[in-house]
Amino acid sequence: MTVDRDDSVSIIKWRLEQRGIVEEYLADEEVSHSPVPLIPEFAVAPYISLWHCKPDLWVVAGDLPTDYFVLPKGTPVRAALGAFADRWARAAQNMLDGQPDPELTIGDPDDREEQLELGELLGGRAELLRKMADDDEAWDNS
Q1: Main-chain phi, psi angles of 58, to 5 degrees
Q2: pLDDT digits (tens, 9 = 90+) for 50-67
Q3: Helices and strands (H and E) in the chain: how many
Q4: What is the pTM of this model?
Q5: Is residue 104 helix, strand or coil?
Q6: Which tens digits make up the pLDDT trace of 85-112?
């Protein structure tokens, strides 16, 4: 979906699409959760949406892998974003090193070429999430 960041209707449509992706992903993964909220806790359309399904389930979707993470109740949004960044950075490094990751499996673990390619992509996404989480100016008004 093409998103015009100056058009609120386009952004709302994108958020609804992301919500649907999150709902489908959680159903496919058979993850028990409270209802997915109508609005993400954090979003930069069309790149990332971060959803909090209370009390402790966080889900990320967008132009990156859809993933979920159970974090302690009361985890702030910024810390949740950073937790995904850290987990993805670790998983990416494991993929590049040819090692299994204790939490994530992406692609075919026996296909070394695919693991290298996906490890690079995941590492890049982890860096972007880390930059967002660490950007004090982005969080001044939150």
Answers
A1: -120, 140
A2: 999 999 999 999 999 999
A3: 4, 4
A4: 0.91
A5: coil
A6: 999 999 999 999 999 999 999 999 999 9
